[in-house]
C-alpha cells in the first residue's frame, strides 16, 4: 500500500508540474495570438491552457488523497494528461492553420481548412472527450470514502 501512496504522490507532483507548464505556455502563447492564422482560436487556446493549468494544479493537490489502486491511478493519470493535451493541441493546430470550423465552429468562426486539416483537428479534438470523461469518472471514484472517519471535536 505504501507503494501506491508513493506513486499517487509522484503523479500528483507531475500534475503540478504540467499545470505550471500549461500556465507558462498560456503566458507565451498570448503573445502569438495576433500573428496566428485564426486569432480567435488562438485566444481560445490561450484561455483553455490557462484553465487546464489551474485544473491540473488543483487535481495535483488532490491526487495523493485518491483511493485508487496502482493500475487505476495510472489509467486515470495518463487519460487525464492525454485528454488535456489533446484538446489543447487541436486548438493550437487549428489556430495556426486557420482551420477548425467543422469541429469548433463557435471558436473558429469562418476559419475553414482543407479536408485533411479539418479531419486532423476533428480526430485529435474528439479523442480528448472519452479519455477525459473516463479520467474524471475514475477521479470521482477515487474520491469515495471507504471507511468512516472520526468526527472532529
In short:
The protein is mostly helical and 153 residues long.
SSE string: HHHHH
Write down the overall mean pLDDT: 93
The counted number of beta strands is: 0
How many strands, what sense, and barrel or not for the largest sheet? none
Overall, the morphology is elongated
Flag low-confidence runs: none
Structural class based on helices, strands and sheet pairing: mainly alpha
Structural commentary:
With 153 residues, the chain is mainly alpha-helical. Helices cover 75% and strands 0% of the residues. It is built from five helices and no strands. It has helices at 2-32, 39-62, 70-97, 105-108, 115-142.
Write the layout of secondary structure elements.
Layout: H1 2-32, H2 39-62, H3 70-97, H4 105-108, H5 115-142
Helix pairs in contact: 1-2, 1-3, 2-3, 3-5
Descriptors for this entry?
153 residues, mainly alpha, 5 helices, 0% strand
